[in-house]
Specification:
The structure is a homodimer. Chain A is about 40% helix and about 5% strand. By secondary structure, chain A is mainly alpha-helical. Chain B binds a DNA duplex (16 and 16 nucleotides) through helix 5.
DNA sequence: GTTGTATGAATGAAGG
DNA sequence: CCTTCATTCATACAAC
């Protein structure tokens, strides 16, 4: 056993603890991702009328989540939405006609879309942005007679009035620049630098969600690296 | 140096390599989760008029806590509903902004409410009214107006995704219950830094991100290490 | 706790 | 731009 020591790396308990924590976080996040993916795809599958019954359909429909039941309204795919948001956040106001055309072409790589869709989207997005800003400015708070979920005496659980105490999420910032970049840990660095150093490996587009998520057990993904 | 060995854990190079790979996988997946979350929230999260009072949201959400509520939905109290119906039946169509403001103030005497709630209510009420009328007009005609998405030559028709070759769809299934509980990750502070180096992300990033993660049991995942 | 349904809210599109 | 409407999405709640 003594010889073996020569060929191994060592960690202090503290380092080990840090590592464990980090891994736990990753595990949690990853599980959550998988959950989300399941929920979303299940939902979208149902919308497209797919029977879930034992159909091992191409699991690669992940990236372009969307449905469209053959009715009218256009619905941006997640990729499209992301791109639109990115462009919007680039600051340039109303895109020119030329710009719109270009955007449309770009986005059509990721799903059905037309110029008017793009046009409308920007139009609506601008309006939304403005409204949000206004809302953020003045906290149009009406009544403030909420009772903390502190158990008030004699409070019956069956409220005749549907007056329920509520909490809202504080999500002031609506959206932000979205980066499609995926960072990977540099395989050559030590685990001690786990926390800070990551290296961009460029786009991992090929690795769609489906590819990543189709495995409940993350171990199965190991061979990708 | 010899003594030190007693206080550290050891790993073989192979184990180390496996660990590194696993972590790389987690990192990648986690990045994608964040990506996904951003897209989703950007998509659905918007100007919800839910500026309900009691923004009492503990950013830290003490230990046992979780339950940072997800989307909240206003529910009119019976009194409010009655008043709204009364106003609606008064005939005057879409209330002006001024009118809405006034109504809101009035109704806030009987419970939580915001202007957008009122606005939406009238909007939906009008739609419902119209639909009801239409329904009353032609009694339940066992209409064979089956909307089998017979492909109209009209290219306004939208397709799911050009990249998805064949997706056979039958009749769309309506309504699919999705419950995505929102919890807080409780131990991530200081450890989670995935976004730390991402230059293109807004400041609130991590916060909203944390809101979406839940902390399931990681034990079984931890066991691998 | 599952499923169904009513309805509040989000948003693409149209009209002005 | 702004407002309105149609459609879709999601949630509260009831019925089982």
């Amino acid at each position: 056993a003594v010889e073996k020591v020569l060929f191994v790396k060592v960690m202090t308990d503290e380092q080990m603890e840090i590592l464990r924590s980090q891994i736990a976080v990753y595990a949690t996040i990853s599980e959550q991702l998988i959950e989300m993916h399941k929920i979303i795809t299940a939902y979208q599958d149902s919308l497209s009328g797919m029977k879930l019954s034992g159909i091992y359909v191409d699991p690669l429909m992940a990236s372009g989540g969307h449905k469209l039941t053959a009715r009218q309204r256009w619905t941006p795919t997640s990729v499209q939405l992301q791109m639109l948001e990115t462009i919007f956040n680039q600051g340039n106001g109303a895109p020119s006609k030329q710009k719109i055309k270009h955007i449309t072409i770009e986005l059509s790589q990721h799903g059905q879309i037309s110029e008017s869709n793009v046009y409308n989207w920007f139009q609506n997005r601008r309006a939304r942005s403005k409204k949000m800003q206004k809302m953020a400015a003045l906290p149009s708070n009406s009544e403030s007679e909420i009772e903390t979920d502190e158990d008030s005496p004699n409070e019956k659980k069956l409220r005749p009035d549907k007056n329920v105490p509520v909490t809202i999420r504080s999500d002031p910032i609506y959206n932000m620049q979205i980066s499609a970049e995926v960072h990977l840990l540099d395989q050559t660095q030590g685990i001690y630098q786990l926390n800070g150093s990551s290296k961009s490996c460029g786009s991992l587009d090929q690795m769609s969600y489906a590819n990543v998520l189709s495995t409940p057990r993350l171990d199965h993904l190991m061979d990708k690296f």
